[in-house]
């Protein structure tokens, strides 16, 4: 019995170790904690490697490092005038991003933790003038689903299931922002999906 308890303790210990943020991640989060982070750019070789890496799920969502990550992402997105930002863009390969809910009147910023796209339209559209904070000075049209059904955990730790749509920049394109940010956590960029 004691052996089982010890084993369980070890298992718990290592699971929690796995979920903790690394020393280098904490450096990004807490050096100048109240300032925006540097946005990684595809034009820099070292940045590019991080941007092209698939991210890991957050295991412990009641984690103060996660709150700091969200704060840092928010400050950076607002400063850079983006409509979304993903953790890898500030050098943290974790499955977290922020996106604007353009489908809502107040157009609030939402946090997506461990997001998944559970289904999508068969149809693909060519979204005009996609752009990315990590691809400086460029815009291009990208292939996107016209709607997606998604699951994620929000900033309050609540499980959310939603359908988002996307079409043109003049209307609600929350679904496109979500797809763009979802690509980031999978190491993909809009320049991989160019259409005419
Ligand atoms: Zn981007």
Structural class: alpha+beta
- Report the mean per-residue pLDDT as an integer: 91
Amino- and carboxy-terminal Cα gap: 65 Å
CATH architecture: Alpha-Beta Complex
Largest sheet data? 5 strands, antiparallel
Under CATH, the topology is which?
Peptide Deformylase
How are the strands of the biggest sheet laid out side by side?
Answer: 1-2-3-6-7
Count of alpha/pi helices: 5
User: In total, how many domains does the architecture comprise?
Assistant: 1
Superfamily (CATH H level) name: Peptide deformylase
**What characteristic shape results from the CA principal axes?**
globular
Total strand segments: 7
Residues in β-strands, percent? 25-35%
List SSEs in N-to-C order.
HHHHEEEEEEEH
Task: Write down the Rg.
Answer: 18 Å
Fraction of helical residues = 25-40%
CATH class: Alpha Beta
Unreliable segments (pLDDT under 50, ≥5 consecutive)?
11-19
Question: Would you kindly provide a written description of the structure presented here, covering whatever features stand out?
Answer:
- With 196 residues, the chain is an alpha+beta fold.
- The chain has a single domain (21-192), classed as Peptide deformylase (Peptide Deformylase, Alpha-Beta Complex).
- The protein has five helices and seven strands.
- It has helices at 2-19, 23-30, 45-51, 64-80, 174-185; strands at 84-86, 96-100, 109-120, 124-132, 135-145, 147-153, 159-165.
- A hairpin with an 8-residue loop joins strand 2 (96-100) and strand 3.
- The protein starts with a helix and ends in an 11-residue tail after the last helix.
- The model is unreliable at 11-19 (pLDDT under 50).
- The protein binds zinc ion.
- Zinc ion is lined by residues 132-134, 180, 184.
């Amino acid at each position: 019995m004691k052996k089982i308890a010890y084993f369980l303790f070890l298992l718990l210990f290592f699971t929690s170790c796995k979920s903790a943020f690394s020393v280098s991640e904490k450096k990004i989060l807490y050096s100048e904690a109240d300032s925006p982070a540097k946005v990684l750019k595809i034009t820099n070789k070292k940045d590019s490697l991080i941007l092209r890496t698939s991210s890991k799920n957050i295991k412990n969502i009641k984690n103060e490092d996660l709150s700091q990550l969200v704060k840092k992402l928010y400050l950076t997105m607002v400063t850079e005038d983006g409509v979304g930002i993903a953790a890898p863009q500030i050098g943290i390969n974790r499955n977290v991003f922020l996106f604007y809910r353009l489908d809502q009147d107040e157009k609030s910023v939402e946090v997506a933790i461990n997001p998944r796209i559970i289904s999508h339209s068969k149809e693909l559209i060519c979204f005009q003038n996609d752009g990315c904070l990590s691809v400086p000075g460029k815009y291009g049209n990208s292939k996107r689903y016209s709607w997606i059904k998604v699951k994620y955990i929000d900033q309050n730790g609540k499980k959310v299931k939603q359908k988002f749509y996307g079409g043109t920049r003049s209307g609600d394109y929350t679904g496109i922002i979500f797809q763009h940010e979802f690509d980031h956590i999978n190491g993909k960029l809009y320049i991989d999906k160019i259409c005419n």
